[in-house]
Structures are given as C-alpha cells and as structure tokens.
Write a structure and sequence with these properties.
Layout (H helix, E strand, L loop, with lengths): L1 H11 L4 H9 L35 H5 L6 E5 L4 E2 L10 E7 L2 E7 L5 E7 L7 E3 L2 E9 L2 E8 L2
Antiparallel strand pairs: 1-8, 2-3, 3-4, 4-5, 6-7, 7-8
C-alpha cells in the first residue's frame, strides 16, 4: 500500500514511469541522486564498545598484593579483595558485584567507616577517590573488570 502511494506521489510530481517503477520496486530513481549543491548524507556508525567481548583472566593473589603501594592495574571478579593502601589511607576493598551495570566495591576502614563505590563504569567522567586513592574502571567484560588504582592528585 505504501509503495503504491509513494509511486502515485512520484508520478504526480512529474516523474517519469521509470522513476515510479523504481520507487515501487525499492530501487533508487535517477531523480533521487544528490546534486552537487546538496551535502553528502552522513552515515552514523555504531560506537565501538569500551569493553572486550570475552571475560578477562582475573589477577593472581600476588598481582593483587602489588596494589598495596597504591599503583596497579588488576582484573577482578565478584569477591576479589584488594589490599589496604596504608600510605593513602584507603582500603581494603572488596568487589561486591561486576556486571553490565558496573562494578561495585566496598571498603570498611579501621574505624568501621564504610565506603561504597557503586556502578563504577569506564568513561564515567573520571575515577572515584577514597582518601588518597583513585580507582578507575578501564573495562568490563562479562563478570570481570579491569581496574586501575593510583594516587589521587
């Protein structure tokens, strides 16, 4: 029905039978070609995903212990514990969730104060900071996430 209305509309606008047949068949007619005066159409392409397709290999306990100096990049899953960074008064952190909604971390300091970092995502506008430690989510893949820890500026 829509093709017939389109064909009738094109015929009513002074196009030839060939143009109407092309419109009805879905093929472009010669009159549909862009002129040099009109800008070329732009195509929107999907943005590349910031997350790898396959889950990553989680960091080893030795790699996680290396975070104790406040500078590391590690791959975590739910339940991963990141050690306390004494010099920056932050941690220890426990990863409480990793998924499409982001990464959740919890920290309880020596005084019992609890810090919750919820829904942390790559490209969220900057890292989250607890005392002197910044934590940035580099990527999320399935139930794994790559985190970068570094001293806050």
């Amino acid at each position: 029905m829509c093709a017939l209305v389109l064909a009738a509309a094109l015929t009513g606008c002074g196009s030839d039978d060939e143009g109407a047949k092309a419109a009805a068949s879905g093929a472009p007619s010669r009159s549909a070609e862009p002129s040099s005066a009109s800008p070329a159409p732009t195509r929107s392409s999907p943005l590349p995903s910031p997350t790898p397709a396959k889950p990553m290999k989680p960091s080893t306990p030795a790699q996680l212990r290396a975070c104790a100096d406040g500078t590391c990049t590690v791959v975590v899953t739910k339940g991963t514990e990141i050690p306390r960074v004494d010099g920056l008064r932050a941690g220890p952190f426990t990863v409480t969730d990793v998924g499409a909604e982001g990464v959740d971390l919890t920290s309880v300091d020596a005084t019992g104060f609890t810090s919750n970092l919820l829904g942390q995502r790559p490209g969220q506008g900057g890292p989250s900071t607890v005392n002197g430690l910044s934590i940035a989510v580099v990527s999320i893949a399935g139930d794994t996430a790559e985190l970068r820890l570094f001293p806050a500026e």
